[in-house]
Amino acid sequence: MPLDEDPEVFGLHTNANIAFEFKTVNYFVDTVLVMQPRASGGKALKTPEEIVTDIAIEFEKGLPKNLDLGKAHELTFMKTEQGIENSLGVFVRQELARFNILLNVIRASLVNLQKAIQGTVVMSMELEAMFKSFIDAKVPMNWMGAGYPCLKPLASWMKDLILRIEFMGNWLYQGPPSTYWIPAFFFPQGFMTASLQTFARKTSTAIDTLAFRTNVT
Fold it and tell me: CA 98, CA 190: separation in Å to the nearest integer?
């Protein structure tokens, strides 16, 4: 008999085993991280508080400014002949709002975390979880709650965020680009739908008859 029962025995899909193994590995890694010593081993080494403070200061300095919709290029939110905003304009407006909310959450939490370490504000459960995430090089849950799905570690996540903001800023301030970075969006499916709507209105074609075709190069 096999050591592990097949998920189908319990009426589950085969992928249930993947989810179980993924959860088990994450639990194991988290346990190992918790067992690691947090105190410094000598005067030359930094304390966890100093490490987290340095990370917070570095992130705060490198964090982009909020995207200003008032300075948008005339083509970004251009209206159609019927006087309504074009579909891509509606989509990018929603995306920009989501990115600004995420930037506000990150900026406020970084400031509060530094104050909590200094002792000027109370170290709440959210800030304490954020502190531990910084030590473990993980993206804090309060950021993930306001952000997009991403599996990158903390440093790579922040670099990726800056690149996304740069792309969205170019679209906002310089008008629609000639090519689009689809994974940069919160909701890529919305971009696909907006593209179909734009083509349908331009060619007077029923959107239900349209579909994407990929040419592999």
Answer: 13
| Rounded Cα gap, residues 71 and 74, in angstroms | 9
The CATH architecture assigned to 47-192 reads Up-down Bundle (1.20)
Q: What is the reported pTM?
A: 0.81
User: Domain spans of the chain?
Assistant: 1-37, 47-192
Position 151 pLDDT exceeds 80: yes
User: Above 70 in pLDDT, residue 107?
Assistant: yes
What's the distance, Cα to Cα, between the start and end of the chain in Å? 47
Residue that is written with structure tokens 């919305």 in the block: 190
Name beta bridge partners: 79. Answer: 85
- Beta bridge partner(s), residue 85: 79
Residues 6 or more apart whose CB falls under 8 angstroms from that of 69 comprise 93, 96, 172
Residue 212 has pLDDT above 60, yes or no: yes
Instruction: Indicate the residue type of 115.
Output: K
